[in-house]
Amino acid sequence: MIQVPRDDRSVIGQWWWTVDRWALGAILAIMAFGVLLTLAASPPAAERIGADSFVFAKRQFIFLPIALALTLAISLASPRHVRRLALLVFCGSVVLLALTFVIGVEIKGARRWIAVPGLSSVQPSEFVKPSLAVISAWLLAQSRAERRAPGYILSTLLVGAVLALLLMQPDLGMSIVVAAVWAAQLFVVGLPMWVAGFGVVGGAASLVGAYFVFSHVRSRFDRFLDPSSGDNYQVNTALEAFMNGSLFGRGPGEGTVKAQLPDAHTDFVMAVCGEEFGLIVCLIILGLFAFVTMRALQRASKETSLFITLAATGLGVQFGLQAAINMASTIQLIPAKGMTLPFISYGGSSALAMAICVGMMLSLTREHAGLREAV
């Protein structure tokens, strides 16, 4: 077993003794469950399209090691380098996000992907989320430090522009995540109550507006409130999978419902987990996501640097909220929403974007991170 002395002043040595090793261990455990569930859920999906049974698994096993390496590499970075990386990722992903309207691939009525030869497709909005959280944090922190800095205005403009692009695709779920992360940062930085109230009213009005403007949103809400009003095949099938699995599951590879669930390897991967491994394992996975999120928020609250506090809060909220939306929609606690479960659902864009998210989160929540920052 390799041991790193506490007085080791190398980059790796300092990283090992300052990084949140508990959060890192939980993230590695989530990735391990991702490997297991990809093997369990992807073969039926591949067979339905006439492909090799393990084509999705093979692709995911390329992306997950890259995601792990990316997470570890970014976690070594200083806050200054995290900001620079976020700026580069944000600029590139916004350009690609705009290009989806020109060269994007339309799937189920939405243009969210750009086809890349050999890599299936890329979803730019996945990369916008973590980078925007860091940039917004920097702008808000600068605005608080320098009273005349237009940080609030610039942050609002950037978030507004991204939300406009997302809604044009349309992608309401991703828009909600971006808005919720920004709202969490505004709450932490401190705003007058009337501004917070205006934001709550504005958010509620936006949801009502989306209900009347987007037919797919209206359909999902109607089916959620009244299941008999439309097709709830995937959600009902997912619930059947959970019932079949009970507490301890039917066993690895013994699930039958996954063969009838079109999105079993992506949006409804937890249903496969519920059927084959049972409620206990599902709760363990839920606990891992909650643990990583709470560790990020706990460490962020102890920071003396406002930028690090805001950025770590935004990244932690994003990680936890995306997982919560995926799992809640699977068991019909909220209207169905196509959103991947970080590091577990199949998807290269999601795996790499989440690697950037947790890598930056681990970097910013390292002990004494504020002493490493050169603003």
Automatic annotation (TrEMBL):
Protein name: Probable peptidoglycan glycosyltransferase FtsW
Bilayer-spanning residue ranges: 22-41, 61-79, 85-105, 149-166, 172-189, 194-214, 277-294, 306-331, 343-364
Protein's cellular compartments: Membrane
EC code: 2.4.99.28
Pfam families listed in its UniProt record: FTSW_RODA_SPOVE
Keywords from the UniProt entry: Cell cycle, Cell division, Cell shape, Glycosyltransferase, Membrane, Peptidoglycan synthesis, Transferase, Transmembrane, Transmembrane helix
Signal peptide range: none
Family of the protein in this entry: Belongs to the SEDS family. FtsW subfamily.
Catalyses which reaction(s): [GlcNAc-(1->4)-Mur2Ac(oyl-L-Ala-gamma-D-Glu-L-Lys-D-Ala-D-Ala)](n)-di-trans,octa-cis-undecaprenyl diphosphate + beta-D-GlcNAc-(1->4)-Mur2Ac(oyl-L-Ala-gamma-D-Glu-L-Lys-D-Ala-D-Ala)-di-trans,octa-cis-undecaprenyl diphosphate = [GlcNAc-(1->4)-Mur2Ac(oyl-L-Ala-gamma-D-Glu-L-Lys-D-Ala-D-Ala)](n+1)-di-trans,octa-cis-undecaprenyl diphosphate + di-trans,octa-cis-undecaprenyl diphosphate + H(+)
Chief localization: membrane
Organism: Enhydrobacter aerosaccus
One of the record's GO cellular component terms: cell division site
GO biological processes: cell division; peptidoglycan biosynthetic process; regulation of cell shape
Lineage of the organism: Bacteria, Pseudomonadati, Pseudomonadota, Alphaproteobacteria, Hyphomicrobiales
Source species, domain of life: Bacteria
Coiled coil: none
Mode of membrane association: Multi-pass membrane protein
GO MF term set: lipid-linked peptidoglycan transporter activity; peptidoglycan glycosyltransferase activity
Cell cycle as UniProt keyword: yes
InterPro entries assigned: FtsW/RodA
Keyword Aminoacyl-tRNA synthetase among record annotations: no
